[in-house]
Amino acid sequence: MAWTTPSSAIRSNWSARQARHTTSKLSMALDYNDPVVGEEFAQVQTMSFEEIVEECEGFGIPVPPALDDVNAQLMLVEIRLRMSGRMSESETSEKKIPPKTFSSAFDETYWTKPVFQKLVDGYRENMDINAMNLITEYIDDKETALERYEGADYKAIMRKIEEAINAKVEITSPKISFSGFPSSMGEDAVQMTFDQLGTIVSFECTENLEDAIFSGKVEFDDVEAAGNAYDQYDGMDMGVGPMLEIVLNA
What we know:
Helix content is 48%, strand content 12%.
């Protein structure tokens, strides 16, 4: 498939959309310490933005207009590794860490709605760029997305978005993990916070000196208390550091 859009049009469209969607870039599953990744990245760095767009399009995968040069390079690296069967050597299994602050409605929804995050990750894994662009715009500017994206396929994705946003996480365990309580509270105060929600069976707490926050695990004697902890504290802004994160079924 040939890429026929003039380079100036590519840049103009990209610049215009970048201002509105700076967070719509793909989350690349690359291990930057892997020599395979390093070698591929070194090759891609010598290419122009237009050359990257053309090669990606050759694989049938358009470059999202919101991507900057570096992320477009990383996108092509991942495509090359996947297409050549070398991606398994480069994937990382590190746990996702939420940002300390959210730069857009999309970011906040992604990190605070587990079912939505799973939906997004599925489209990312399949490199469905059209779906990713729709999801990003739907969350950041719903009115525009409804006007721009027409057709049964897009409407189906919109329904999935709404279902994911409004889905309740099934609670199957009385165990939770937490992160984000300020160190200034003290460990005892953190435990007392959870004590108010139900009977605690076990409590673990570790201080992150770099971020000055506590993280740990709590096991209640029933799932209702775990659900209450999630409903009351997940996503709460403590005024310092990252927002509180409560993970169910930990």
